[in-house]
Structures are given as structure tokens and as C-alpha cells.
């Protein structure tokens, strides 16, 4: 066994062993001095001697068509693309055996772009505290959130960083302090962040509770 893949001799064809399928294809975006790297990882249900992997990376052009950015081959189950710029990409990976036969490709899409703003912010009152939980319209595992807090509403959203207090970056935040009192409004300013950039702020207003039982 090797990372859960079995060395299981499979029935061959007249040309050799059938290339294995690609599974669990993932991508991770990494910042690199104004440009970006993407680390692709995958595995196969079985390990076949002499198999390598063929990769094709396309980017969506302005007219909606796909343009080839890079093609590569590797004997490993991961590969790093460097020097990428913003855009929407499609990565395809397929196994190739020693006779040049190709297996079925697996594909995944990813975007190198700043995230969109949260579509909804759930504010849950607690005992002298408020829990803020942002939501995205489409789930993105690369996104976290910056939480900013103010006792008073900030009329100019562009002044949030000057007028509000930064709480931290996380998937949700519990605002709790001796200064939070039930019966009055408090203001959260929240934006989505990822390796590429930050979204616009979204405002949410909530109150704490004085019910110790929840």
C-alpha cells in the first residue's frame, strides 16, 4: 500500500496495462510576488508501473473560449504551476502508460481572483455577546473573513479601516466584552479575503441578549 493506493496488477490490453483513473484532484493557490502559483494534487485507485501524468491548464479568454496556458508531464501525483495571473482556469489531468495510452481525464476549475463580498451575514445574539457568521453565495474553501466592529454606524464604507476596530480574521467571530450591552445596536463590517485579495465590506447590525439561558 502507498497512500491508500494498492499495487494491484490490472488486466492489460494488447498494448499494455490500462492507465488508472485520476481521483481526488485538488488545487491550492499560493501568492508569489504579484503573481501566483497553483499546486495541483491527485491520486489514483491503484499504482501501475511506468505510468506518468499529463496535465493541461487552460484559462478562459475574454471571448469565453479556453486558451492553453501550460502543458506538462510528471511521474509524481502533484505538480506546481508558476507565474500565473488573475483569471478563471480549468486543469485537466490524465494518466499515461509506458506505451502512450491515455486514461480518462479528471478536470477541476479554479479562479485566481479576489473573493466576492459575503452574500449574507448571520448575527446571533448571546448573553452580552454577538456571534457574526458570514456566508458566501457559492461556498469557497479558500475564503476567510476580516471582522471589524463599531459602536456607531459608519456612513462612509470606505472609512471602515480608520473608524472601526479590527477584531481578527476567521470563519466566524464572537464579539464579547464588558462594553457590549443588550438593547443597543452594534455594527459589524465584514469582508471576504483570500490569497489574491479582499472584497468590499458588508455591514451588519445586531444586538446582544441579556438572557443567560440563551
Short summary:
The protein is mainly beta. The protein has one helix at residues 160-163; strands spanning 12-13, 16-17, 23-32, 35-43, 52-60, 66-74, 78-84, 87-96, 106-112, 120-126, 129-135, 144-150, 165-170, 173-176, 186-193, 202-206.
Unreliable stretches covering 5 or more consecutive residues? 6-15
| Mean pLDDT reading | 90
CATH superfamily of the largest domain: Immunoglobulins
Number of domains: 2
The description of the largest β-sheet is: 4 strands, antiparallel
Structural class by secondary-structure content: mainly beta
In the CATH hierarchy, what is the class of the largest domain? Mainly Beta
Question: Given the structure, what is the number of helices?
Answer: 1
Q: What characteristic shape results from the CA principal axes?
A: elongated
The assembly state of the depicted protein chains is: single chain
What CATH architecture of the largest domain do you see? Sandwich
Helix content, binned percent? under 10%
Our measurement of the CA-to-CA distance between the termini, rounded to an integer number of angstroms, reads 50 Å
**Approximate strand percentage:** over 45%
Rg, Å, rounded = 24 Å
What is the tally of beta strands?
Answer: 16
CATH topology description of the largest domain: Immunoglobulin-like
How are the strands of the biggest sheet laid out side by side?
6-5-8-9
Order of helices and strands: EEEEEEEEEEEEHEEEE
Amino acid at each position: 500500500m502507498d497512500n491508500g493506493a494498492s499495487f494491484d496488477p490490472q488486466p492489460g490490453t494488447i498494448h499494455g496495462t490500462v492507465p488508472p483513473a485520476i481521483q481526488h484532484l485538488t488545487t491550492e493557490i499560493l501568492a508569489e510576488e504579484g503573481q501566483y502559483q497553483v499546486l495541483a494534487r491527485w491520486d489514483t485507485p491503484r499504482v501501475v508501473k511506468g505510468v506518468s501524468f499529463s496535465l493541461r491548464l487552460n484559462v478562459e479568454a475574454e471571448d469565453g473560449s479556453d486558451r492553453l496556458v501550460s502543458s506538462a508531464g510528471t511521474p509524481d501525483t502533484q505538480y506546481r504551476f508558476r507565474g500565473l495571473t488573475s483569471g478563471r482556469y480549468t486543469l485537466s489531468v490524465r494518466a499515461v502508460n509506458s506505451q502512450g495510452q491515455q486514461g480518462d481525464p479528471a478536470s477541476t476549475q479554479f479562479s485566481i481572483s479576489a473573493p466576492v463580498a459575503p452574500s449574507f451575514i448571520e448575527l446571533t445574539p448571546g448573553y452580552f455577546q454577538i456571534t457574526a457568521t458570514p456566508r458566501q453565495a457559492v461556498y469557497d474553501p479558500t475564503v476567510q473573513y476580516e471582522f471589524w466592529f463599531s459602536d456607531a454606524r459608519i456612513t462612509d464604507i470606505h472609512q471602515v479601516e480608520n473608524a472601526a476596530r479590527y477584531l481578527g480574521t476567521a470563519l466566524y467571530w464572537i464579539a464579547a466584552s464588558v462594553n457590549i450591552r443588550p438593547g443597543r445596536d452594534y455594527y459589524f463590517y465584514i469582508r471576504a479575503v483570500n490569497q489574491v485579495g479582499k472584497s468590499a465590506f458588508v455591514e451588519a447590525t445586531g444586538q446582544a441578549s441579556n438572557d443567560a439561558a440563551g
